[in-house]
Amino acid sequence: MWRTDSCMDLIEHGEEGLFAPRKIALALRTTSEELARSVGLGRDAMQRKERVRSDRTQRRLRELVEILNIVEPRFGSALMA
Asked: What is the C-alpha separation between 11 and 71, in angstroms, rounded?
């Protein structure tokens, strides 16, 4: 059963229509650097404005959020997922 109230809300983790690494890292209680490693990107991809806006960075962040939304109901929270 899907628990939409606990899934990572895409709107909450975005700014100006883009995924915001800082907000995602905060929700997962980690750092932007660790988030970058988790999605296979360099630290600059999460910290430099032009890199955060790149298609590759945004695609990786979207995939991360989508995966968390799929597995979160099984584990009970985004942190456990």
From this structure: 19
